[in-house]
Amino acid sequence: MVQSLNLSGIVNAFRLLWNPRLAMPHIIVDDIRHIHFSNLKKYGNIKAIGFDKDNCLTAPYALTIHPPLKDAWEDCIKTFSKENIVIVSNSAGTDDDTDYKEAQNIEKTLGVPVLRHKLKKPAGGQHLASHLNPISVNQTAFVGDRILTDIVFGNQNGNLTIWTRNIITEKGDNKMALVIRRMEHCLIHFLQKMNVKPPLHCAISNGKISAYSN
Q: Alpha helices of 18-85 — where are they, by DSSP H?
């Protein structure tokens, strides 16, 4: 599937000049195997979780979970249950997805809902909040491999954000995404050197952050 131009991503990138905290994830892990889902629920009061798909759960545009991540994915589903997990993609479930066929195929293979939304990340947080209602935004975590879309999306909507910094593969990925991802890694390194912190979140302020990942 070919993605259309993400104007929201371009516009929101300029917002970081005024509020760079939006780019800082609350938690950084190599991949989802390093997330302690049960502790997020127990200590962080996280009741729902959203995921980007490509290079977070699957290879780019693939339909099935990346095999090494299978056990972690099953643990996530066991912890939160299928109805409280949702895939938020900038391709599947959007207007680029004719008749939402791609979203339907992903729902069959990954076993969780794919959000239908017109606005691409980092815009459109209201669609995720509506889908998960009555679970509040601060009881929702968002996990993704992209800073300018996934992490900014989660932070500006009050979610607990988790960045998976190691991608699955560059093979088959969007060429523009390859370039921007390298810039994002440099951005995070710079913000860390400048001691920029992520937005405040109750799951972090309780002092249990070390329990959420390894």
A: 37-44, 70-80
Digit-coded pLDDT (tens) for 147-163: 999 999 999 999 999 99
Going by the DSSP 8-state scheme, the letter that residue 199 receives in this structure is P
| Order of strands across the sheet that contains 140-144 | 27-29, 160-164, 140-144, 48-51, 85-87
Confidence of residue 14 (pLDDT cuts 50, 70, 90): low
121: Cβ contacts below 8 Å, ≥ 6 apart? 6, 8, 9, 52, 88, 90, 149, 150, 152, 153
Q: How many CB atoms lie within 10 A of CB 79?
A: 19
Handedness of CA 50, 52, 57, 61 (dihedral sign): positive
User: Mean pLDDT, to the nearest integer, of 138-144?
Assistant: 98
CA angle 177, 54, 159 (to 5 degrees): 95
Confidence (pTM):
0.93
Q: For Cα atoms 15, 21, 23, give the angle at the middle one, nearest 5 degrees.
A: 70
DSSP 164: E
pLDDT at residue 5 is higher than 70: no
